[in-house]
Amino acid sequence: MASKGRAKAPARGRSQARQRRVLPTRVLLRWSLLLVAGVVAFLYYRPLTTYFETRASVEARAAEVRELEAVNARLQERLARSATMTAVSREARRSNLVRPGERLFIVKGIPEWRQAQRTMLRDG
Fold first, then answer.
1. What's the CA gap between 47 and 40, in Å, rounded?
2. pTM for this predicted structure
3. Residue 86 binned pLDDT confidence (cut-offs 50, 70, 90)
4. Spatial distance between the Cα atoms of 108 and 93, rounded to a whole number of angstroms
5. Where are the beta strands (DSSP E) in 1-124?
6. What's the half-sphere exposure (Cβ side, CA atoms, 13 Å) at 25?
């Protein structure tokens, strides 16, 4: 039995030596993996920031397009309403245009006249 004990003792010494040798390689492997991960992160940083900036720009442009489409729809509706003869006639009157044979009269001071009428009705 004494020989068995002696045989096991050197085996333990070898495994401890292996662990001591393996430990620096594991640490080196971990550091190299961290270094590779850092390089990959560094290489992906610029494209990712460009992607997010572009995506934000596209979203802003899409919002602007939606707003312009809404304005366009309102203008199209206004154009459709203004294409009628009564609307054209009303706009012409606002622009001080008259039909052939009509006379144009410009009346000034209407707000003052209305104020005077209100004052007379109140005072009696």
1. 12
2. 0.42
3. confident
4. 16
5. none
6. 5
